[in-house]
Amino acid sequence: MILVTGATGSVGRHVVDGLLKEGQFVRAVTRNPATAGLPAAVEVVEGDLSAPEHLPLDGVTTAYLIAMGDNPYEVAQTLADNGVSTVVFLSTSEVLDDTDEQPGAIAARHAAFEDAIQRSGMLWTFLRPNEFAGNVLQWADQVKAGDVVRAPYGDAWSAPIHERDVAAAAVRALVDDRFHGAKLVLTGPEAMTHREQLGHIASVLGRKLEFEELPAAAVRERMARFAPVEIVDALLGRLAETVGKPTTVTSTVYHVTGRRPLTFREWVAEHVEDFR
Ligand SMILES: NC(=O)c1ccc[n+]([C@@H]2O[C@H](COP(=O)([O-])OP(=O)(O)OC[C@H]3O[C@@H](n4cnc5c(N)ncnc54)[C@H](OP(=O)(O)O)[C@@H]3O)[C@@H](O)[C@H]2O)c1
Q1: Rounded distance, CA 171 to CA 144, Å?
Q2: What is the pLDDT of residue 52?
Q3: Among 40, 87, 141, 237, which one is least packed by beta carbons within 10 Å?
């Protein structure tokens, strides 16, 4: 039995579908089973990674884990103590190895999960994806409302990855022991700036869209009303850090899944309705 946390998430739903196609038994965790909308073939259970002691783990040998909950060490130890032998963890490409100082709160949180999993004695694979293509959904309301997207750091670079490719790599790592002990840095097939991402959205929609750069300080002030300031600083800090530095593209999706990674334009073409 494979436990899938974050099963309702943008990656997790594809992980569930991929595991079902592989003929695996899936137990999907959500805080709200009534609204989860998961396939009927899945055992849906209520659970919260903030209270890992209540996770139903009987019969679970393998887990797909996301970085949620308050205490990574408690989460990892609970899995290990209850017979889970293998974990595939959705980390981030921001995590740096061999340092005590991670570049911001987001990397630090994921690094703590990685450390907790390694200390637990379970077999592990760490997925370290670059920015998800779906992050551009944050512009959807502006695209629907007009021809200008106002956002910070138009010249920040990333190699946006389709969430289905992250999930495909997760599925391979969950069912195939070749990837134990691997840190898989996953990117999309091409590096581009955020301004160029908007250009692709415009061209797929057949519209003219302009990127208007907002000053980071103003964005920080606004975002800090809704999110912890250390997370806001980590998000903006990552964007600032990548200005003028094209992201290194990896071939990991191809090597792990055996097929080419999906392009950003393919992601947009699948999501045109979200921008209309
Ligand atoms: N966005 C990026 O560019 C990027 C890049 C690299 C890594 N990541 C990592 O990807 C992960 C997000 O994955 P995603 O996109 O699949 O998810 P998502 O679409 O953001 O959805 C969040 C998921 O987390 C679950 N969740 C939230 N709080 C929880 C808790 N306390 N206990 C258990 N589950 C909880 C939700 O489940 P329910 O609501 O059903 O309970 C939902 O399935 C994050 O850890 C993020 O750091 C993101």
Answers
A1: 34
A2: 97
A3: 40
Q: How many Å apart are CA 220 and CA 110, to the nearest integer?
A: 22
- Cα-based angle 234, 118, 13 (whole degrees, multiple of 5): 65
Tell whether ligand 1 has an atom less than 6 A from the beta carbon of residue 120.
no
Sign of CA pseudo-dihedral 50, 132, 105, 183: positive
> Among 10, 64, 66, which residue has the most ligand 1 atoms within 8 Å of its CB, making it the best to mutate?
66
Mean pLDDT over the full length of the chain: 97
Contacts of 82 by beta carbon, 8 Å cutoff, 6+ apart:
55, 57, 58, 60
Domains and CATH numbers, the chain: 2-130+162-188+248-261 (3.40.50.720)
Q: Using CA atoms, how far apart are residues 159 and 149, in angstroms rounded to an integer?
A: 20
pLDDT, residue 202, reads 98
Q: Would the CB of 71 count as within 6 Å of ligand 1?
A: no
Q: How confident is the model at residue 259 (pLDDT cuts 50, 70, 90)?
A: very high
Residue whose entry in the numeric block shows the structure tokens 């920015």? 131
Q: Residue 82 has what pLDDT?
A: 98
> What spacing in Å lies between the alpha carbon of 6 and ligand 1's midpoint?
6
The per-residue pLDDT for 56 is 96
Mean pLDDT of 175-192: 97
Distance 256 CA to ligand 1 centre (A): 22
Ligand 1 atom nearest to CA at 69? 31
pLDDT of the residue at 130: 97
Q: Which residue has the tokens 């592989």?
A: 22
Read off the amino acid at residue 132. Answer: F
